[in-house]
Amino acid sequence: MCLTVARQLLVMAIIVIISFFFSKKNNFGQSGSQYLSRLLLYVINPCMIVTAFDVEFSGQKLRSLGLAIGVSFAFHLVMIAIATLLFVKRSQAQKAGRAQDCAQGQEVRDSLSKIGIVFTNSGFIGIPLINGVFGSAGVFYLMGYIFVFNVLLWVWGEWLMTGTMRPVKILTNPNVLACAAGLAVFCLPFKLPYVITEPLKMIGACNGAVSMILLGLLFAAFGGENRSQAQDHAGENCIQAQKRAAPLKAFAKPLARDVLLRLVVCPLLLLGAALFALRLFSGVQEINLIMSVLFIAACCPVGMSVSSFAVVFKKDADYASLLVAISSAACVVTVPLLVALLEALV
């Protein structure tokens, strides 16, 4: 398990490095990152989701997938509760004791922290990791986790970013529609034609590479010309001033807190939930496989969604990119240890 995770992180790092130097040399800036973020969120991810469901139908698989979706929903509710309770007192203190612009700036970062704590990189790291350990059977049940992930990301996550919840936009979001289309594809009594599935598979296969290219582009822009130009404006807020004066110092404490919550605190709490589910559904044929897959998905580092959301909604992309990168590097230690703990307790 440790070797699989380390190998995947090495692949990720190589792509990020290539993207970093290429982006630095060509100075793509914010427009390039916005384009890749939208491409990833609205095109590549939906294609990947649909093709993952393109497997032979069986009633047992459908029931087991339903169980995976239910447990995944419970896992996400636990993590949302942790993230919400952690920041509720912070938010009250900020509004009472800080200037308005500083409080608003910190609230933006707290929203990104909440998304990072709850939504894992179950796509880029989760899919190859599960496939390497359990094969295609494990990837199929991982889709239950990713289904819940995408629905809640575009309900709760967008609400955190924009302060609004738009039911029509949520229902018509490509990622949510892809989840529904994937379930429909799975239930079809026949396979889709090759000319339909092959383009979807080719686009979906770009998920990992495009995610890491985007991260490299964000790193190239970190501390660079775009941020300096933005900070020259008269309307610079408190958080921007702190970042300009001492960016590493400003980021250190919240990064350490969020990475610890994502990689240690949440997985340990979900470990108890996983053990309870194993006993509650002990009669289900593939319950050990299902719970192992879902637990590993919940142990993954911060998802690229936090960086993508930061760019798309024009929030703190510097902090988001660092949060993704540091948690991804640290997971090479935490994920194998947590999986070993699960195996020892089962």
Molecular structure report:
By secondary structure, this protein is mainly alpha-helical. Helix content is 83%, strand content 0%. It contains 16 helices and no strands. It has helices at residues 2-26, 29-52, 59-97, 100-118, 126-134, 136-162, 167-171, 174-187, 194-204, 207-221, 225-231, 238-245, 247-280, 287-299, 304-312, 317-345. α12 (238-245) crosses α13 (247-280). It is globular, with a radius of gyration of 20 Å.
Spans of at least 5 consecutive residues with low confidence: 225-236, 239-246
DSSP helix fraction? over 70%
Number of strands: 0
Mean pLDDT level: 81
Distance between the termini: 17 Å
Task: Note the quaternary state here.
Answer: single chain
* Proportion of beta-strand residues: under 5%
- Helix count, DSSP H or I runs of 4 or more residues: 16
